[in-house]
Design a protein that fits this description.
Mediator_Med28; mainly alpha; 2 domains; single chain; 3 helices
Length: about 120
């Protein structure tokens, strides 16, 4: 069995073990022995170790991909930058629309205040 398959197999085995332990213990028993706690701790530690191995495996694969296939890493970065530019352009358009709305509202207020302004010396 190659190391890639072994990492996945170990994780699956540890998940099965922890599910088996969790499903076999009665949660309603108030007198759970220390040995059961120890067993659960042992299985949990094994599961955490398998998760760390899987995380390490992903990091190694990511490093290999970025080392040997740099164009993929660059393409991914360019795609992320393009997505960010599109998001910022949408935000800029949204802000431009708000500014136009605010300036129209301000102009209406200015026009109304000019119409309602009383000019001194006017006899009404």
């Amino acid at each position: 069995m190659d190391s890639d398959a072994k990492v996945l197999s170990d994780l699956e085995t540890q998940l099965d073990n922890i599910f088996m332990v969790l499903s076999s213990t009665s949660l309603h028993d108030s007198d759970i022995s220390e040995s059961q706690h120890g067993l659960n701790d042992k299985h949990m530690a094994s599961l955490l170790d398998a998760c760390r191995q899987m995380d390490s495996w992903f990091i190694k694969k990511r490093l290999a991909l970025s080392t040997y296939c740099q164009e993929y890493a660059l393409k991914e970065e360019i795609d992320a930058l393009n997505a960010e530019c599109i998001r910022k352009e949408k935000l800029a358009q949204e802000l431009k629309g708000r500014i136009e709305d605010y300036s129209k509202s301000i102009q209406v207020i200015i026009d109304q205040s000019k119409e309602n302004q009383i000019i001194p010396g006017d006899s009404a």
